Amino acid sequence: MKHIYLFSLLTITCVCFSQVTVQAVRVSDAPVIDGILNDDVWNNAIPVMEDFIQHQPDCGEPMTEKTEVRILYDDMSIYFAFKLHDSHPEEFTRMVASRDNDFPSEWIGIWLDTYNDDNNAYYFFANIDNVQQDGRLCEASGWDSNWDGVWESATSVSDSGWTAEFAIPFSALCYSDDEEQEWGINFKRTITRTNESAFLFRMADNGSIEIKDFGNLSGLNSLPSTRQIELRPYGAGRVQYFPDAEKEWDPWANSGIDARIGLSSELLLDLTVNPDFGQIEADPKEANLSHWETYLSEKRPFFLEGSDMFSMPFSLFYSRRIGSIAPNGDIIPILGGAKLTGSMNGFRIGFLNAYTGSVKDDGSTLVNPTNYAAGRIVREFGEGTYIGFSGTSTDIPRYDGSEYVYGRSGAVDAQVSFLENHRISSAIAGTWNSRDDQWKDNFAYRANYNYDSDRFDISGGSSFREENFDANMTGYTSSTGDVNTWINTGLYHPFSNSNVFQHWVGYLNAWLSRAPGGPVTGRGIHLNSGLSFRNRYYISANLGFKGSWTDRYEGPDGTEYDGGLDMGFSCSTDPRKQLCGYIWGGRNSYCEGKSNYTGTSITFKPFTNISFDADLEWSWTSNARKYNWNFDEWDQRDTDWRSLELSTNWMFSNYFSLRLTSQVSRFSTEWNLGDSSRDLSHWMNVLLSWQFRPGSMFYFMIGENADPDEITGEFGKSEFTVFTKLTWFLPV
Predict the structure, then answer these.
(1) How many domains does the chain have?
(2) Which terminus of the chain is more exposed, N or C, with fewer CB under 10 A?
(3) How far apart are CA 103 and CA 106, in angstroms?
(4) Cβ neighbours for 489, distance < 8 A, ≥ 6 positions apart
């Protein structure tokens, strides 16, 4: 009888959850976005006062504090009001930080599936101190946390909790042109004091976002079908000091404009003339012991915006190729660019074109003018099922006596979802470059299967890039000629009834790579396990074994290496505390020698608006059998990499901040035959940022760097840069 009662109660509870109604109400007067819910217009809204459902720490249980939601809209924006009850407001975790910074605090967020297609969603979050986060999630291309919209939010705190108001302009969203619309929607709230995270519509126990499980937002009709034009003119100036140059002081000034044109409610056209793509932040130096160039993350706004649509199979598009660094150290100028993103007739599209100028030094041309183009079209057929078409083109015309050079690539990829949690995906791509002598063996293939549930997932697949596959003119290609096969499994187990443990995760990975008809180029098995505690501490350990393998790129003819054991660990403390840290370390087999690594990351937050971070890394290899090209002999090599990064963030307000970032690093190499080197380098940036109105920014930066002296390897002479930039957001 007891079991029947529990089953009936569970059934009634599930039905109640599934019947949550979320409705927006049209109004003629917009609410004032000040975080105080005293505008009479909010009385027109239909309140949502259902319990949010936890995924942490007690999966499936109602959140311990109540949340109220109200939604309005007019011809310009959609508005959200939240009343977030809390019985212990004196224990709120407060922190002011820069936008898109994720950290433990009190958060409330909105998810919007504006096409209600179960494939694409925007998210908008604000914490108790009105720090904003936003981005996109797409089934076909994954997360895009770099997407930034211009929207408003405000928060306030009371003795019964806190409140928040959001105003999201329709011009920031893409949606259909139907007269009446129904969007997918969900809300997420976190309470740091109790370590709770919860959704209005229940998500997976591990907190992963499944757009198909969102609820519905109704009541939307007659939304604007055209969008405003947004202009962002800018002016920038820079003075650089080069101690060894004939012209020690090098002044520079520039101006340009970015324009965003809303062609419809579904299409956006971005244009830029003479853009400033100079790096505000330096790329941290890394130890690179591989045969391939370091893959750099993108930081430039023009390429970050809508980057999810340019995520192509086999890395056919690598935006850092555009406007990269010339051989003499100059940044290759980008003279103009255009980008079209959005949806059209059921297809999601993204097209980009950029044209870079030449770089000359002492009358010689180092880099020719180049045109880069990339495009992707995706047709979606319900949740998790799609087909995509990608292509890139790089053209370097004849210039200053040089030959015409081009590079092309294309790909087709598809995914099919079935039986709720099963997915099969595949892709095929090809490259065609004028520098290739052979027009064969230039394709790549991939196929994999994935099963993903709340607490268990398994995936496996295989990929093969033929020897002449080379997308490096526009994309990023490393090793080719190997068939790679893998299988991965994962298990998530929450401890809902424990006062000590939060959850346990375990992963098992196995892989095998080999050249067709040739040697094994990689194989191994790896086990990783992690345990999370209710007090937010976390520990993990990993153990793996690599079998013997052949490195086809080491030495004139390649070489075979023995395998060995890999092991490592990591642990972290409670990030809610003023002082928190993360430490890791391990030891791996490496080229019949050993590779060791250790590091720590420490954060100190003495005040809600000031934080200090220190990251220390140390890795070293010993007795590695490598080919010494200086002596044309096999040799043993030892390396030592040490790096210290320091940063300080001082937020005067949510829109005005001062940041200091610096790095000191050393990399040394020693060979048994007597060849050795050591490189010492450091850089530092002090950056003042001020968002003086929504979408408008002022930057002032002072930077200093010292690259290694070419002969001694010690710190070279310091070079200094003073940079300033003003960008003004002008909606038309």
Answers:
(1) 1
(2) N
(3) 9
(4) 456, 457, 458, 459, 507, 508, 509
Residue 692 maps to a domain: no
432 within some domain: no
> Which whole-number Å values give the CA distances from 195 to 55, 69, 124, in the listed order?
11, 21, 21
CA-based angle 621:624:628, to the nearest 5?
Answer: 115
More confident residue, 435 or 615: 615
Whole-number Å distance between alpha carbons of 230 and 227 = 9
Give the number of residues written for the chain.
732
Interval 295-328: pLDDT, tens: 888 877 778 777 788 999 999 999 989 988 888 8
For residue 107, give its domain range.
21-221
Least confident of 504-518, 548-562, 574-588, 695-709: 695-709
CATH of the domain at 217: 2.60.40.1190
- Residue 213 belongs to a domain: yes
Please write the tens of the pLDDT for every residue from 504-544: 999 999 999 999 988 999 999 999 999 999 999 999 999 99
Distances (CA, A) of 498 to 411, 459, 503, 610, 672: 49, 30, 10, 35, 55
DSSP 335-374: EEEEEEEEEETTEEEEEEEEEE--EEETTEEEE--EEEEE
- Which residues, in sequence order, are bridge partners of residue 651? 657
> What value does the mean pLDDT take over residues 12-41?
79
Grouping H, G, I as helix, E, B as strand and the rest as coil, residue 724 is strand
Say how far apart CA 367 and CA 381 lie, in whole Å: 44
Buried b (16+ CB within 10 A) or exposed e, 598-609: beebebebeeeb
pLDDT score recorded for residue 332: 86
Tens digit of each residue's pLDDT (9 = 90 or more) over 45-57: 999 999 999 988 8
Check if the beta carbon of residue 413 is closer than 8 Å to that of residue 390.
yes
Domain presence at residue 428: no
pLDDT of residue 5: 36
Contact 101, 174 (CB under 8 A): no
Host H or E run for residue 183: strand 180-191
